[in-house]
Amino acid sequence: MIDLYKDKKIKRKEKKFWHKYNKLYHNYERGVIYRDFLRDFESFISPKSNEVWLDAGCGIGGIINLIKKKSKNKVKKIIGVDADKNVLFLARQKFQQDIQRNIVEFLNISISQKTIFRNEEFDGVVANFVFPYIIVFDGQYADNMAIEMVMREMHRILKRNGIIVWSTLNKNFSLIKLFWNSKKDFFYSLENAYYTLRLFKYLLQIKGKNKRGIYHSLSKDEIDPILKKIGFRNIVYKKSLVNQALIIKAEK
Predict the structure, then answer these.
(1) Measured between alpha carbons, how far is 67 from 64 in angstroms, rounded to an integer?
(2) What distance in Å separates the CA atoms of residue 234 and residue 250, rounded to the nearest whole number?
(3) Left if phi > 0, otherwise alpha if psi is -120 to 50, otherwise beta: which for 36?
(4) Which end of the chain is more exposed for a tag (fewer CB within 10 A), N or C?
(5) How far apart are the C-alpha atoms of 152 and 52, rounded to whole Å?
(6) Running DSSP on this structure, what letter comes out for residue 117?
(7) Cβ-Cβ contacts under 8 Å for 75 (sequence gap 6 or more)
(8) Does the pTM exceed 0.85?
């Protein structure tokens, strides 16, 4: 087993890997199957007027746009946090007007440790393909315990009856199925074809890291007892991304 507590080389590689991935991520959102996935994710969120939401691992803010759209721009505030300063620079450019109106705020915070937020601060939390890739939480917890401790932190900062919506690739997701269902992107434009191929390069690495025990994409049967032990209820699952991913919704 890899000693993730001490392996600084892995941590450096991970930081570099996700930095490169984040620089390209917004291009992936144009893909056919990813647009379908976003519709599925949107169906699970229900932001209301005057609510405060957190996007954990926000990237350039794709899910923040969904929250704004679903609430008809009536949410009080959306806070996006990410460990990558460079991707937050792009996010702040994208949401410049919302930042000026104090509707959106971005913070350079890693959710791989206890956050600065108060108990019961948020009405909703979203995290899109984030939790399985936290390899160590607070420098102490690795493997499935890392995910459990992240979920405990999200539970702490959620208001009572607040919801969390997050996503994970299947443990043994099929690159062949994803590739086959992305074939329309190759004919749409050369640019789309280029970014689709780049995406599959990263997905191949993610799949390999799942097998080596660096990442932990859990199954429904593994997720359910963790969420229930923490105190989440009304847990709902939806298959998406041509059945290669799960979207999970739970209530505090």
Answers:
(1) 5
(2) 6
(3) alpha
(4) N
(5) 19
(6) P
(7) 47, 48, 49, 50, 51, 52, 53, 67, 68, 103
(8) yes
**pLDDT(202) > 90:** no
Inter-CA distances, 12 with 1, 17, 19, Å: 19, 9, 11
Contact residues for 8 (Cβ-Cβ < 8 A; gap 6+): none
In one-letter notation, the amino acid at residue 245 is A
Q: Pick from 65, 50, 173: which is nearest to 126 by CA?
A: 65
Do you know the residue count of the chain? 252
Q: What is the pLDDT of residue 8?
A: 66
What the block records as the tokens of 184 is 């329309």
Nearest CA-CA partner of 57 in 103, 106, 12: 106
Half-sphere exposure of 228 (CA within 13 A, CB side): 9
- pLDDT at residue 212, rounded to an integer: 85
Q: What are the pLDDT digits (tens) for 22-80? A: 777 666 666 677 889 999 999 999 999 999 999 999 999 999 999 999 999 999 999 99
Question: CA 30 → CA 2, 12, 93, distances in Å?
Answer: 36, 30, 19
**Mean pLDDT (whole number) for 214-221:** 91
Which candidate, 110, 79, 75, 111, places its Cα nearest to that of 92? 79
Give whole-number Cα distances, 105 to 76, 109, 110, 137, 191, in Å. Answer: 11, 12, 15, 24, 31
Q: Provide mean pLDDT across the span 78-107.
A: 96
What pLDDT does 18 receive? Answer: 83
